[in-house]
């Protein structure tokens, strides 16, 4: 552990040193801070966590503003927080998962019927919004920030956990007005995407190190359970991911 | 300009179970068949990366692309129907194999009672037992007449099961033994036996053992891999048209299977079809395929839609009750269950699509309905599909649905909840039907199908009654917390329920009240056969595929006869 910690400090220093941008003052501390946050998340959050190899896929393919991405991250962590069972949404990489999903066919509603006319339906007619999911997320995330500013005079990411919950609850209860979609519909998407990020195959950028699966003692994508299916006692198995099937 | 192709004896629209069975039977008899399938080709080798819950279960990798085509939905005629924009109460299949590639494989026969339901109800309880508005009718075929075709279908698929004495007589035992009885199924068995029931292992199309069918197709046993429903089986253990009937048809050299061929119209002169028009969804090229016989096996929804859009057969009119196409649309009644949370942990990550047990006592008319305010019944059952983690977040009522408490509780119970569920029969009603939407169109410019459907008093009463039977079973099984749901909300098109849609092109004895005869031959156009659960005049409590498979075998026999002799087959 001690060694790993040392390594992390070294690499962090090295990063700062190598970063010409900072030295030249071209970019403000915002970028540096968030890059540090991104690349050295482990070491910033818990100083004893091991430093892992660079995760090149932990970068943004949908969001353009880091502030939006951080709001998203904070919200997902409230939905699926770190606790005694194990990591929460942030440590599982859920925000990256959502970012990557929004950039693809999920975010763009490629497989959904998106032809008009659009009308509000009853509670039994499913989602009828003309907005695509990425538009719903973007609007919803900015609205989280706006509510936070107006209720607490502070940024969503700076609020106490309970205050963040209060804001999220307003969305779930439709106490916030969004355009073209209900706040509760945004909240439902956010909640389901968070769970999907926590528990989908790590190939998608969430469920880091299969830690989501480990919490549920879920063995991942095994090829066969013919040996376990009749067992009376619970059989714990080392999880396996799709990566191993290639 | 459509490209007109050379005429063939038979063109089949849709290559799922119904189309695949008919293609296999006809080509084995030496008949040239063109199979048109809107989706892509599929092979077992496409399933090697299939253990991916996000891609297959949540993003519907194998299902129909809704951006091209969906249906519109309303609960009653007073409402404006709106498109089902995202999945979805039901998941229609696409691609070779259709939904038969990603089904569970729970494979039943209907009861003798089902086929003669109207006469038997009147005979036993009198005319008044059938309420006003319930469009109950006999099927125009009896169980005994259909039995040989059930047998043929089950031998082809290798169904694993055990005989149930109070169900219809079987001419032969199941081709393979029942699935393995897991510890949680043993709990269900013990509990239901103690309560005086006779539980049985659900008949399964996930092979319990290695099996070679009469066509010479050999398949391996199920591995209980738990990626079954919504997924393709990489072992070929699950009966799927692509590992059973289609290879047999292809081997004859008589099947010309064209993928990316979306049929948009049946060409006809009012009495006889001359072929179909189809579009390649990728290149948008258009073709006309002339044929002596047109078989529609494009699932319930498109069987109805293609007939209505092509103006073939008499469209159903809910005001007058006249007309047949779109009539008697039925579903499945599943709003009732007892969910139990246990102290113990079970190996619930393992399972299979058709691994379950059921009690037969509340099915059909196997219990007395004299003092009951509904007819027919339900299967009370418990399954072990294998819990996949994204969707497995059950928490007792009153628990938060997100945040710390939710996370803790959903993890605590991840391997410790079981459900005794009910699958109820669905009766046809004059007010529940399918027609064309006046506003919304598919990507080819054809109107979307419009569904008008809601649950009725019959369904609510059945639900309440059955819910009461589930709780004692769960108590007997020793759950720590039991939650029983016994009420139906209006049908909601958002959450998945099941893909057991039936009716719309129903079979019967009388052309005034049915669209096809017992060979699934259209009364109004003798060279058109419409195969699938669209032929069911009502839906039983049992999953539909076994019955639509049997009917498809009978239909294939009819088509062969028709090609030889012409004319009406009845
Ligand atoms: C997740 C899931 C689980 C299920 N589990 C069970 C179960 O356990 N037991 C059971 O009995 N049933 C089950 N079912 C239902 C079962 O899959 C269907 O009853 C059965 O597969 C229907 O067969 P079919 O041939 O009538 O239709 P499909 O399998 O839907 O085949 C129709 C084919 O026609 C094609 N098609 C449609 N329109 C056109 C067109 N215009 N032009 C060209 N091609 C077209 C489609 O692409 C499709 O391939 C399940 C369904 C789903 C989705
Ligand atoms: S559970 Fe069995 S039948 Fe289903 S996909 Fe897995 S191996 Fe195949």
Summarize the entry for a quick read.
The complex is a heterodimer of chains A (246) and B (570). By secondary structure, chain A is mostly helical.
Enumerate the distinct ligands. Answer: flavin-adenine dinucleotide, iron/sulfur cluster
Largest sheet of chain B: 8 strands, mixed
Structural class of chain B: alpha/beta
| Main sheet makeup of chain A | none
State the end-to-end distance of chain B: 39 Å
Question: Can you describe what's shown?
Answer:
The complex is a heterodimer of chains A (246) and B (570). Chain A has twelve helices and no strands. With 570 residues, chain B is α/β, with parallel strands linked by helices. Chain B has one domain: 3-Layer(bba) Sandwich (FAD/NAD(P)-binding domain). In chain B, the strands form five sheets. In chain B, strands 1, 2, 3, 9, 10, 11, 12 and 22 form an eight-stranded mixed sheet that branches. The longest helix of chain B has 21 residues. Chain B is globular. The mean pLDDT of chain B is 97. At the A-B interface, helix 11 and helix 12 of A face helix 2, strand 5, helix 9 and strand 18 of B. The site of iron/sulfur cluster has 14 residues of chain B, from loops.
Features:
heterodimer, A: 246 residues, mainly alpha, 0% strand, disordered N terminus, B: 570 residues, alpha/beta, FAD/NAD(P)-binding domain, eight-stranded mixed sheet, six-stranded antiparallel sheet, 11 helices, 22 strands, binds flavin-adenine dinucleotide, binds iron/sulfur cluster
What is this structure's SSE topology?
The complex is a heterodimer of chains A (246) and B (570).
Chain A: H1 2-18, H2 20-24, H3 29-39, H4 41-45, H5 66-79, H6 89-92, H7 94-103, H8 105-108, H9 133-152, H10 161-172, H11 183-199, H12 211-215
Chain B: E1 3-4, E2 8-13, H1 17-28, E3 33-36, H2 53-58, E4 71-74, E5 82-83, H3 112-115, H4 117-125, H5 143-157, H6 183-194, E6 200-201, E7 211-212, E8 218-219, H7 245-252, E9 255-258, E10 262-268, E11 273-279, E12 286-296, H8 299-309, E13 327-330, E14 337-341, E15 356-359, E16 378-383, H9 404-412, E17 417-424, E18 433-441, E19 447-452, H10 457-477, E20 481-485, E21 502-504, E22 528-530, H11 545-565
Parallel strand pairs in B: 1-12, 2-3, 2-12, 3-9, 4-19, 12-22
Antiparallel strand pairs in B: 4-5, 6-15, 7-8, 10-11, 11-12, 13-21, 14-17, 14-20, 15-16, 16-17, 18-19
Helix pairs in contact in B: 1-7, 1-11, 5-11, 6-10
The structure holds flavin-adenine dinucleotide and iron/sulfur cluster.
Flavin-adenine dinucleotide is lined by residues 13-19, 36-39, 91-95, 98-100, 102-107, 229-230, 261-263, 297-299, 302, 354, 499, 532-533, 543-545, 548 of chain B.
């Amino acid at each position: 552990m001690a060694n790993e910690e040392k390594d992390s400090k070294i690499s962090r220093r090295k990063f700062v040193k190598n970063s010409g941008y900072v030295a030249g003052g071209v970019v403000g501390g915002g970028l540096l801070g968030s890059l540090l946050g991104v690349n050295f998340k482990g070491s910033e959050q818990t100083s004893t966590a091991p430093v892992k190899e660079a995760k090149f896929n932990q970068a943004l393919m949908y969001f353009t503003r880091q502030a939006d991405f951080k709001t998203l991250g904070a919200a997902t962590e409230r939905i699926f927080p770190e606790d005694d069972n194990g990591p929460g949404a942030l440590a599982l990489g859920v925000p990256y998962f959502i970012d990557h999903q929004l950039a693809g066919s999920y975010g763009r509603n490629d497989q959904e019927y998106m032809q008009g006319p659009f009308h509000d339906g009853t509670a039994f007619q499913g989602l009828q919004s003309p907005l695509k999911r990425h538009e719903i997320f973007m609007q919803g995330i900015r609205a989280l920030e706006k509510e936070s500013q107006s209720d607490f005079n502070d940024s969503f990411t700076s609020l106490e956990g309970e205050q963040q919950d209060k804001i999220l609850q307003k969305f779930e209860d439709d106490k916030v007005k969004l355009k073209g979609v209900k706040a509760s519909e945004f909240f439902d998407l956010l909640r389901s995407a968070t769970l999907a990020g926590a528990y989908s195959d790590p190939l998608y950028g969430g469920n880091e190190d299969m830690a989501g699966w480990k919490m549920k003692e879920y063995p991942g994508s095994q090829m066969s359970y013919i040996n376990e299916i009749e067992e009376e006692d619970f059989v714990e198995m080392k999880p396996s991911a799709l990566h191993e099937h290639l | 300009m459509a490209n007109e192709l050379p005429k063939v004896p038979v063109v089949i629209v849709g290559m799922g179970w119904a189309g695949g069975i008919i293609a296999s039977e006809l080509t084995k008899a030496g008949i040239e068949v063109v199979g048109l399938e809107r989706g892509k080709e599929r092979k077992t080798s496409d399933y090697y990366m299939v253990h991916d819950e996000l891609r297959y279960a949540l993003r519907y990798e194998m299902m129909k692309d809704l951006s091209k085509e969906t249906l519109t939905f309303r609960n009653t005629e007073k409402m404006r129907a709106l498109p089902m924009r995202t999945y979805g109460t039901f998941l229609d299949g696409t691609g070779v194999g259709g939904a038969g590639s990603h089904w569970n494989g729970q494979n039943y026969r209907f009861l003798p009672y089902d086929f003669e339901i109207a006469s038997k109800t009147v005979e036993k309880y009198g005319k008044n037992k059938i309420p006003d508005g319930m469009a109950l009718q006999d099927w125009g075929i009896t169980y005994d007449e259909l039995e040989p075709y059930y047998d043929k279908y089950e031998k082809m698929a290798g169904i694993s099961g055990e005989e149930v004495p109070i169900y219809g007589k079987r001419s032969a035992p199941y081709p393979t033994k029942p699935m393995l009885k897991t510890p949680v199924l043993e709990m269900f068995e013990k509990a239901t036996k103690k309560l005086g029931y006779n539980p049985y292992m659900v008949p399964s199309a996930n092979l319990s053992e290695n099996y070679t069918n009469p066509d010479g197709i050999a398949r391996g046993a199920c591995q209980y891999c738990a990626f079954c429903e919504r997924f393709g089986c990489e072992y070929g253990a699950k009966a799927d048209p692509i590992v059973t009937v289609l290879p047999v048809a292809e081997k004859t050299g008589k099947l010309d299977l064209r993928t990316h061929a979306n049929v948009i119209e049946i060409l006809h002169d009012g009495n006889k079809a001359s072929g179909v028009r189809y579009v390649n969804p990728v290149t948008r090229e258009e073709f006309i395929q002339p044929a002596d016989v047109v078989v529609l096996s494009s699932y319930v929804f498109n069987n109805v839609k293609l007939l209505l859009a092509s103006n073939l057969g008499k469209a159903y009119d809910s005001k007058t009750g006249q007309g047949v196409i779109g009539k008697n649309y039925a579903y499945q009644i599943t709003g009732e269950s007892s969910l139990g949370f246990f102290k113990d942990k079970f190996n619930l990550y393992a399972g299979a699509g058709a691994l379950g047990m059921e009690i037969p006592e509340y099915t059909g008319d196997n219990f007395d309905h004299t003092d009951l305010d509904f007819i027919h019944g339900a299967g009370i059952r418990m399954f072990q599909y294998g819990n996949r983690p994204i969707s497995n977040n059950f928490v007792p009522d009153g628990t938060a649905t997100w945040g710390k408490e939710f996370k803790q509780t959903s993890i605590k119970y991840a391997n410790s909840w079981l459900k005794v569920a009910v699958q109820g029969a669905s009766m046809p009603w004059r007010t529940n039907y399918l027609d064309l939407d006046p506003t919304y169109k598919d990507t080819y410019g054809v109107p979307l199908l419009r569904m008008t459907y809601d649950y009725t008093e019959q369904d609510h009463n059945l639900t309440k009654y059955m819910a009461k039977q589930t709780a004692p079973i769960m108590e007997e099984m020793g759950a720590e917390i039991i939650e029983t749901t016994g009420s139906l909300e209006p049908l909601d098109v958002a959450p998945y329920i099941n893909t057991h849609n039936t009716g719309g092109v129903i079979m019967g004895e009388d052309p005034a009240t049915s669209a096809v005869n017992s060979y699934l031959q259209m009364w109004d156009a003798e060279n058109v056969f419409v195969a699938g659960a669209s032929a069911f005049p009502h839906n039983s409590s049992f999953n539909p595929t076994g019955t639509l498979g049997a009917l498809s075998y009978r239909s294939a026999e009819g088509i062969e006869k028709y090609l030889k002799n012409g004319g009406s087959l009845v």
